[in-house]
Design brief:
Rossmann fold; 15 helices; 29% helix; disordered C terminus; ABC-type vitamin B12 transporter activity; CobQ_GATase1; ligase; glutamine amidotransferase
Length: 518
Amino acid sequence: MSGGLLVAGTTSDAGKSVVTAGICRWLTRKGVSVAPFKAQNMSLNSFVTHEGAEIGRAQAMQAQAARVEPSALMNPVLLKPGSDRSSQVVLMGKPVGEMSARGYHGGRQAALLETVVGCLEELRGTYDAVICEGAGSPAEINLRRTDIVNMGIARAARFPVLVVGDIDRGGVFASFFGTTALLSAEDQELVAGYLVNKFRGDVSLLEPGLDMLHGLTGRRTYGVLPFQHGLGIDEEDGLRVSLRGAVRESVVAPPVGDDVLRVAVCAVPLMSNFTDVDALAAEPGVVVRFVDRAEELVDADLVVVPGTRGTVRALEWLRERGLAAALARRAAEGRPVLGICGGFQVLGEHIEDEVESRAGSVDGLGLLPVRVRFAREKTLARPVGEALGERVEGYEIHHGVADVVGGEPFLDGCRVGEVWGTHWHGSLESDAFRRRFLTEVARAAGRRFVPAPDTSFGALREEQLDLLGDLIEEHADTDALLALIEKGTPTGLPFIPPGAPAPTPAPSAAPERTKEAL
């Protein structure tokens, strides 16, 4: 088998990331060697590969779904927003500078397209299939001229395009038709059909609409995926936590001990890698919620200050909202606080920043004996160490260099009383360490909480990826998908002029349903 597919969407958050992961896991279980690919990703959730390259965390998750090692080839361009108007550009895993949206789209696309096509071709030469994820919508006609991630890469690779629509939002038929109709004739040639995501109810009630959509566009629907609770899978920037199904706040599994443990995560501006708390939410009896008011910290047993792409901005935000004073009170009372990456820097005594915010000399919260200087070179690493007597693995993504001048050592950061700080993302995914840390938190908080002795974050993640594969296998026309990946877009699909719907043929013109779900 040799081929590929581009999974596009009618909107952002239509489900492209999880559908791509599901197709990768389904193909992998069939014995197909497959790689994910996203030419250009805009996200503050990122990951560090073993070769020290920074890529979108969603692509790392998709690589895990495909059971392959993540690589910079799978996400050659990563944009990390620093404001509404500018982003850090990460090319082939390394930052190359800050750029405004106008500057980025103003002249670099030809060179970038050459780079991303080269990466895609290298993956195609290594794997049986490459499943690409688009970004936003392919019908963002204002950006089509400079597009390298949707129809631009599909045209370059001659890949068929499957358009995903979130029916839970409503308007999915209009979105499918409008997305197709806004594309040029050359782009429409590659749009093979549609995939409905997050459907609730009886699929038979949807079938007349699918038939009419086929009549209007000449394109079939390749599957109807049901709404699935509890998909705690890494996406680009969706505020979702817990592999056990938590969304903002929920406890699905009962506690092992007599108490639950309440974790409040400060929703700082430009929050990055908040997936760090997924491992906490995976524990039975741990409640994780995102907060933005000081009063929401009162009943928290642990407060997490997460990573951020704007450390100085986050510091100002914490002070403006009274959260800084609330954190200081907690520290004085011996109540647990954990700072991760930018959150660790915020807890220090002093910040010298001529790189990220260019704010110069700024006082931190003074809860940890740390002085931070921002370097132009970004630290990208996959450290392994020990804390609380347990082995810990993590990854580092930061410009801030911490000079720790006191306290107890903790994962290259430090601990003072019940205030902990580290640059290591992902450390809580180390099961034994997480259990020891939560035991410490429960003791300090006076809770009769007991970590479950057998919770495996890795096993839970694998269960979720298998569930995504099951959704594709059970609710999509996999024979047709396989043919699409191998042979490309069917020929002879009609062009749909914008504003001029084609006549609807008789229902008999609809494609045969090869699976009951369709």
